[in-house]
Queue: 2 jobs
Job 1
Amino acid sequence: MTKRFYKTAAAIALDGGGHGVALDGKPIRTPAGRIFCVPVPALALAVAAEWAAQDSVVKPLTMPLMRLCATAIDRIGGARDGIVAQIAAFGASDLLSYWAETPADLVARQTERWQPLLDWVAARYGARLVVTAGIVPVEQDAATLRALHDAVGSLDDFRLAALSQLTAACGSLVIALAATNRHIDAAATVAASQLDEIWQAGQWGEDDEAAERRAALAAEIESAIRFLALLEGTR
């Protein structure tokens, strides 16, 4: 954290194309020193609003859109192949491959929330995941893993940054891909990724630490989906 050193924050059009943010008229750079450049004005406006909302101290953790932009520009641009492989690897042990054996109520909820997503990823990408009941590991077909890798690799750097955050927060590449494609909204993404925890909390209650963890993951999901909406000019 650093003290706020500027008075104004505004979105700007960059001379070389793209959109940036200026603090007191000076274009900002990313943490790695690269030019801060995003593809759409709506995203630049939203990031400028994050800068403008800072009080006497600049707190990066309160600027999720800025952090996602910096990830796209600094991290993904220089290590794209490795990041694609890292994200795609989630498909080998996806959350949606492991269903409960009992009780019937939990299995019914998984069927309601998860099966449509498994059907969607099969139809959209040709990736048919093997599923099991219980915790015994299952091996996914090589063609399915290739299809998931290709799906991840097809995204541009900014959408890949959002997918990376979503995959980590959801523990599921399938759910994250559905959210990135805007097939499901933030509420449905949280509900699918936290289905087991929500069910358990409803049965036996939830301690403060677990509730805080779920809330933090939900916030990561919501900021990533807002980021995607801004990229598409829909929010």
Job 2
Amino acid sequence: MGRSAPRAAGNLWLARTLWDLGSVQFGDFTLGRTTLHSPVYVNVRLLISKPKALRRAARLIYQDVRTLQRMLHPRVAPFDRVAGIPFGGLHLATVFSLIADVPMVYVHPSKDRDASTPFIEGTYERGETVLLIDDLVTGGGNIIETAAVLGMAGLKVKDAVVLLDRHEGAKDRLKANGYNLISILGLEPMLNYLMASGRIEEDWYRKSIDYILSRRPA
């Protein structure tokens, strides 16, 4: 009970804050390489417009990570660095780095660089473990690609943390690749909260839930 109550409060705060920022939109969206014709889109990056909200979101990640590390059977491995995944994860990782007092690195997003040569901003030592942070995950491709680049530089990735999981197979895909995913909030619980609090119309709620269920791995 000591763990579930604070986490539930954090989830509700995040869902409400994203709604108030106008981050939740309904329509017909194609997102990245895997999400086609989604009726719901959540722009988590709008948190940068509210410094207090961004700080609180990063603190939620920090508190969750610390709680999972302190369990009898820890669910997050010790880490030496934190890495934000461009671009949404960079802001969260920067604030997390300041809160946790943990050095930060990130993979340079330039498309002009040689993909076989890792271009990582920040100092590090080979053999160190890096915690990945992103704002949102869909299929997990960005996390896997970032972990691969860090691996070429001799860095290890065991865990990744995201604010919002769209529940489109990322957790299972990452697990199959040897990575553990921690999410602060899921898209379905967020929609349930927004519907229960009268913030969204039932028609869009139903379309969105049906879409999530259709994308969920069998």
